[in-house]
Amino acid sequence: MLDKADEIHHALDPSMKACAPSAHIELRNGVKLPRCGLGTFKAAGDEVVGAVSVALRAGIRHIDTAQIYKNEELVSEGIRASGVPRSEVFVTSKVSPYQQGTDKARAACEAMVSRLGGEYVDLALIHWPGASKTDASSPRNAALRLETWRVLEEGYRRGAFKAIGVSNYEAHHLAELLAAAEVAPMVNQFELHPRRQCRQLVQLCEQHGVAVVAYASLGCGDLLGHPTVIKVAQQLGWEPAQVLLRWGLQKGAAVIPKSVRPARIAGFAPGALLGPGSRIPDAQMRALDGMEDGHKYCWDASGKPEAGSSRLWKGGRCSKHALKGYIGSWVISVDG
Hints:
Elements: H1 4-12, E1 24-26, E2 32-34, E3 37-39, H2 46-57, E4 62-64, H3 72-82, E5 90-95, H4 102-115, E6 121-126, H5 140-157, E7 161-167, H6 171-180, E8 187-191, H7 199-207, E9 211-215, H8 227-236, H9 240-250, E10 254-255, H10 262-266, H11 270-273, H12 282-289
Helix pairs in contact: 2-3, 4-5, 8-9
């Protein structure tokens, strides 16, 4: 039985689950997206192949990559090396801000499918709601992202993509797309953790059947040392990373933490995160929810004046320097 405080908490937070989350999120078209995934941002060379192979052998079935990461072919190689059939693996990739607009997006989507095995991609996303080197106030951003969405819709209809969605879309971007889309987005991937809970955006996603995939669940490593996270971890006998990932899972999201270390990757597997006893009790969930302060560790798509390249990966271990070689002179810009 729940006490009165718990009943109120559940009423205010309908995403709270009475038991551990399931291993998949069923998208509106019936496609099943595995909740426990592996991210590959900043991973390169043999470490990508090794990490993907280790993850799949550990039971992870969701691999997240992007064209701007420049490692799609290595992800495909890692899948082959694992011995796990491609049909059992859910692969996400993303069209970059450099590739917005009809012609560029079509070429990008063809290249994406080719680099990831030549048949299909499970989930294709628009990586960012703005086009590179386009002024934040320009209406061109909205036009280009809609053109890009039409290309994803084409790919979905012909079977190149099993599902389509967006990444880093704020509530106003998502509302705009929902009003214009012929095929509604099935996923929105964005930064989500106890310090940035995006409640309005999460609610909009829930209302329209858009699954949430959380990135930066560990706050680029910074949240592992947060006093509240450490206290909860000690109370439950867990590692801080388990607390943060299970928080995201319990909120209804999928999680895609990144590592190239086999021991850490094993801790991201469904058996480690979703097994018996993995549910965070209500009191500890309230403590974690109380960390909310809107802090953003990664890029900002809000359209605010400060949401430019100077705010890339601010704080924690994700520095602007870490992006060098991946996005180069990418100018982050969106219209508000």
